[in-house]
Design a protein that fits this description.
Layout (H helix, E strand, L loop, with lengths): L4 H11 L3 H14 L6 H6 L2 H9 L4 H24 L7 H4 L2 H7 L6 H15 L5 H5 L3 H11 L3 H13 L3 H7 L1
Helix pairs in contact: 1-2, 1-4, 2-4, 2-5, 4-5, 5-8, 8-10, 8-11, 10-11
Length: about 180
């Protein structure tokens, strides 16, 4: 990574439209997204934007890897925020990932859907993201996930997130 690994992956993603290559690059980036120490480097080197661009390929395998990357990144960020060594908005929101997650949240692929739902739940746990969720369809998706997710653990995480957020409570009760 310190020698330009994320730039290499991002560049490879932009130079090819081969689904197999895109899946492998998206998978590599998704793995790196699971390391919080690499987040700023991934963002600065275009790794997050490259992930979102690769999703445009339309390949279900690539999209599943992109969703896994978003979930890994969001989980690390929320953990860092909860543990107190990270503050502020999610770096994912700066690159438009929330919009992508919301648009793709009703996919038919169960694996992709699970990763997207987890990413939304983890991003919603970061209090500085609350207004982004409120003023997009994010809060509506989180409420839907809390009742409709096919996985009980994800439904429970969404319910817990909705209950614990002081910024979400007035919005939920207003509807």
């Amino acid at each position: 990574m310190s020698k330009g690994g994320a730039q290499l992956l991002a560049g490879t993603a932009l130079k090819t439209n081969d689904p197999q290559t895109l899946r492998m690059v998206a998978g590599a980036l998704a793995n790196l997204c699971g390391n919080e120490r690499l987040h700023m480097m991934l963002k600065e080197d275009g790794g997050i934007k490259a992930l979102l661009e690769m999703a445009r390929s339309g390949s279900n395998d690539v999209i599943a890897q992109v969703a896994r990357g978003m979930a890994n990144f969001a989980k690390c960020e929320s953990r860092g925020t909860i543990q107190g060594h990270r503050k502020g908005h999610s770096l994912l929101l700066e690159d438009g990932a929330l919009t992508w997650l919301i648009i793709n949240s009703n996919t038919t692929s169960s694996s992709t859907k699970r990763h997207i739902e987890l990413a939304l739940c983890h991003l919603a746990q970061i209090e500085d993201n609350a207004y982004d969720f409120i003023f997009s369809r994010g809060l509506i998706e989180l409420v839907r996930i809390s009742t409709e997710s096919s996985r009980e653990d994800i439904r429970n995480l969404a319910k817990k997130t909705l209950t614990l957020s002081p910024k979400f409570q007035p919005e939920i009760h207003a509807e």
